Amino acid sequence: MRLYFFPGACSMSPHIALREAGLDFKLERVDPKTKTMVAGGGDFNAVNPKGMVPVLELDNGEVLTEGPAIVQYIADRKPESGLAPANGTLERARLQEWLNFITSEIHKGFTPLFKPDTPDAYKAIARANLEKRFGFIDQKLAGKQYLLGDRFSVADGYLFTVVNWARLHKMDLAPWPNLAAYMERVRARPKVQEAMKAEGLIK
Fold first, then answer.
1. Which distant-in-sequence residues (6+ apart) come within 8 Å of 177 by Cβ?
2. Which CATH class is domain 90-189?
3. Distance between alpha carbon 32 and the CA centroid of its chain, in Å?
4. Three-class secondary structure of residue 102 per DSSP
5. In the chain, which segments carry CATH 3.40.30.10?
6. Per residue in 119-150, pLDDT tens?
7. pTM of the predicted model, to two decimals?
């Protein structure tokens, strides 16, 4: 398998999942401005016409896009990893509930903050909305190690990836102590450290 990524982007979520699952894969870095592969060139739009990471290219040549779909596929490839509850269970629906919330309310919530042409007034609204979502997550994490309880799941890798962007926008997580502690807990995981080092985010 080959994961197309950009350092620190939402593609870090499946990158973490691949390492946590212990699957074999190669990394292919994408330049988001030129839409080309950094090593050797090549048109990224030919791989994914959406022009966005993450993309997981399977060994048979099939291409899978959209982070929540990719991480569930990874988890199902290695069910013994415990990265996702079994299909058909309420627990699996809870995982999907979290993945949908993260993608629609947190991931997309950050989008206006990354766009240079977003008016400052709207950025303030976006930050306020994110802070409300952080408060909700903080409450849900009370007494828990991870989103689904005591076991790390692909939803945790995704939440960690996108909430980590708060640092880029000088958003202090101190008002949400459960979330802040959770971020440090996930950050300390060996496979998360491996992914961050491989992407050049930490030494």
1. 138
2. mainly alpha
3. 17
4. helix
5. 2-81+191-198
6. 999 999 999 999 999 999 999 999 999 999 99
7. 0.97
